[in-house]
## 1
Amino acid sequence: MLSHIDSLTDEYREDDEFILLKEFAGFSYKNIIGCYVIHNKENDKYYVGQSKDVMKRLRQHFRGTVPNNVIFAEDYFSSDYENKENLFEVKIIPCETKDELDRMERELIEKYDSRNYGYNRTIGNS
């Protein structure tokens, strides 16, 4: 699985592949500048973000598979999901420029409607 994570390329722009959050735990990684989408599989809610270091940002959101912040914690701890370590999955979309990051984040928030029916509270950076 590590090689899959390390080989993040433009292929992620073309498919909708999500990786279980637990697959990222414990791996060393290269810095990835890009957008990320976190999906709660139980309630089908999404969160879209961007970062100059996506993997570091994911670690700020989660400790392993347990949420570190209020955004995801309420749903996580009230979940009836049988195996909570499989509750969240992540998609990463590498980007090159700040303009591309901002545009991609807005497009993904719209695509997943994560402002109206997800965890996002804004339409993204502008």
Note: The CA atoms of residues 36 and 92 lie 4 Å apart.
## 2
Amino acid sequence: MIYFTEEKFDLYYNCTALTNEEWELERNPNLIIGLLYMLIGITFLILYIPAVFILLDRELLTFCCFKILLFLSIIDIFILILSCLVCGYLSIVGQIFCSARIPNYIIGMIAMGLWTLSSATCVLLSINRLLDVHWPEVALFFFEGYKTLGLLTLPIMYSLFFALCVSPAPYSSKSHGFFFDVYHKTSVDEFMNERFTYTSILHSLNNYTFIIMTICVYGVLFSMLIYKYKKNDKNFKLTNFKKKALIQCVFVCSLSLISGSIYIYMQYFPTSTFIVIIGQMAWQFNSGISSVIFIFLNDTTRRVIAQSFLPTWFKQLIGVTGQSNTIDIVQNHSIKSTVAT
């Protein structure tokens, strides 16, 4: 949320209750947690290099789902930089809100924007998958050509509203997560919370909506797949690959649900540091797991990666020959993009 006067900002986010020396004593540095966050981020960011390289293929980008996937991958990369690298550093130095008031507030705004942008884009992608699998004509009507880019402006505007107009949740090393209560677990926490309420109904509403819509859309998608399979629809085949896709989708969606649910709970109720860290790591893995699935589940993408990134002698050693063919990926784009969500 942007405050246009310093007086208004100071009213809600005042750090004069303690001296600078006393605020320094409130720090809670943790080298292990910080390094763990950073290790997770670096690992996933390295894996995203070949994943984005493949998604940038022009043939793939003729399909609407891959445009959304590329956009979502870029969002995930920024989330990993923030939630892993930046937060890891803040945990190492023991950062709390009043250690650097303005920078921490801006970090909270960015985190709010990225989380809502990611969740809104995930919902858009899940709707695209549902329509593309079961009602391709409808999917074509809404997502064909530049219509996809137009639809992507919706989550962008949605996230900008949250980043600029909703109270942010700055990062706190007291529990190594994001909290609307900027005085979380400090000596002035109780005093400040008697004066002001540091929560966000809109953030909770976003998370509830995201959770419900994700469950409903994928529930309909899976139910119809199972129904067609049991009905022995001649035009429908549930291959082993598609079964794996369903399992992977449930896994990825579960990470989103865990992260969103924990972040709702910990803003209103006392929560152990361990649970907060689990919620933070669920957000990190939710942003990074798509790269793992896209690279290691798909034989064609593995072949493309091997041909593009491995040295010739190693390709000969493992038997990777021939030219890569992105058409192989495109021919099964519906189920593969479902996996990548």
Note: The CA atoms of residues 78 and 120 lie 16 Å apart.
